Amino acid sequence: MKIKHLKLQAMFFVFLSAFVFITGCDKDDDNGPGNEQELITSIILTFAPTGGGIPIVVSAKDLDGDGGNPPVIQNIELKANTDYALSVSFLDESKSPVENITEEVEEENVEHLVCLVGSGAMPSPVIQDKDDNGKLLGLVSILKTGAAGNGTLKVSLKHEPDKNAANACSTGETDAEQTFNVAVK
């Protein structure tokens, strides 16, 4: 009887130890209170003519986030046959002071990718900046417009994309995305 009691006690301690080990492990929770998903209310694009001239600044703002009111998206008007340097920035304007999310993208550059896809008369910008691993980042790019016409520019901020994938922009989570109407004149 005493041996049976010892076996039960040993089984109880094994079970208890396993339970404490399994439930006591610290899980990596990217969405927990220590690492909240940032709100991105605004995407700002700055087109600077490389030959000089006044930069063109446009934005897409969705101050109440997903749902609610629709975003306010400014149209892009570029000159035909012109070289531009494009910089992209992201803001959270729901906070005071405004939080510059671009700084976080720069700090965590290996985990982010800005995807820029042009259509119609809008050429896709060519990314110029790289992350700490030498992979594309996308906050700075260049483009040359062609003949006059209309098109679109889709801007996406990807989080944890597979930058080695054939189409890295189809991987990872989308932190922000907006399509701008473009007129090349």
Question: What does this entry look like structurally?
Answer:
The structure is a single chain. The chain is α+β, with helices and mostly antiparallel strands and 185 residues long. Helices cover 16% and strands 38% of the residues. It has two helices and eleven strands. It is globular and about 40 Å long.
List its salient traits:
four-stranded mixed beta sheet, seven-stranded antiparallel beta sheet, 185 residues, alpha+beta, disordered N terminus, globular, single chain
| Count, helices | 2
Quaternary state of this entry equals single chain
Q: Any idea what the radius of gyration is?
A: 24 Å
Helix-residue proportion: 10-25%
Overall residue-averaged pLDDT value: 85
Which class do the helix and strand fractions yield? alpha+beta
What are the low-pLDDT stretches, counting only 5+ consecutive residues below 50?
A: 1-35
Number of strand elements: 11
- Encode the helix/strand succession as letters: HEEEEEEHEEEEE
C-alpha geometry: globular
Strand content: 35-45%
- Sheet having the most strands: 7 strands, antiparallel
Q: How far do the termini sit from each other? A: 95 Å
Write the layout of secondary structure elements.
Layout: H1 2-24, E1 42-49, E2 56-61, E3 72-73, E4 76-78, E5 83-92, E6 99-100, H2 101-107, E7 112-120, E8 126-127, E9 140-144, E10 149-159, E11 173-184
Parallel strand pairs: 4-11
Antiparallel strand pairs: 1-2, 1-5, 2-3, 5-6, 5-9, 7-10, 8-9, 10-11
Summarize the structure.
This protein has 185 residues and is of the alpha+beta class. Helices cover 16% and strands 38% of the residues. The strands form two sheets. Strands 1, 2, 3, 5, 6, 8 and 9 form a seven-stranded antiparallel beta sheet that branches.
